[in-house]
Here is the input.
Amino acid sequence: MKPGTGAAGKYALTPIGVIRSPLKSVRAAPNFYTEGAPRAAIEVYAAYRRGLSRMKAGDEIIVITWLHRARRDVLKVRPEDDPARPITGVFSSRSPSRPNPLGLHRVKVLEIEEGRVRVGPIEAVDGTPVLDIKPVVSEADDS
Amino acid sequence: MKPGTGAAGKYALTPIGVIRSPLKSVRAAPNFYTEGAPRAAIEVYAAYRRGLSRMKAGDEIIVITWLHRARRDVLKVRPEDDPARPITGVFSSRSPSRPNPLGLHRVKVLEIEEGRVRVGPIEAVDGTPVLDIKPVVSEADDS
Here is the structure.
């Protein structure tokens, strides 16, 4: 199977929400949230809001996104386009370009109101589909 | 949209490999890798092996799996089936049952040979599809 050709319906994802952020373009997106990404919100769709039960301000969560503007036909990248860094396989890189453009973002919950989860700095542009939210369960397991 | 109905082809995933483990059933799977999960291997399919370039023994990685035996129509669960714990939304739980059955596993690379990545203890059963592998980039960002 050629990379980037996609799969059968068997592995079909359903967005459960969307990122609402002042960050409007990939070009403006920092590489890591430590580099000044803005706070944002996860708008969870009505059909999935029951899944937020018991989430509260202060929780550390992992947001899994669909990096909808990334390329899927790439297997090697130059990290952060830095000429000083060697070409690297995508599986040893956090580049958004990869066969399955899944993004992982660890953030803190600031406030939850009616399916809107306000979170700390997150390096995802406005409109990015959200696929899952998981709690960080321990420092050792905070994958 | 009803939970669990799946999405259009737009969000279709392509497995890049598969878990090879002595763990053969969900019933036998521990809840967390700290509870005695066995070492396993990620068999990366030939078409994606270039993506492993520069990965090496000792690397800490995050493996994203498709929890193919999980239910997708569940929004609340009782964590670990423990009657002492309250019913919780799936987004505040690490239950495999959730709208998009994505699993996150932080493991250490033990050895890489011909597209076979041997890793430390991982709570995923034999045959679990692998969707992505990412490096842990820092303790603060090891989402």
Remarks:
- Chain A touches chain B through 63 residues (CB under 8 Å).
- Residues 14 and 131 of chain A are 7 Å apart (CA to CA).
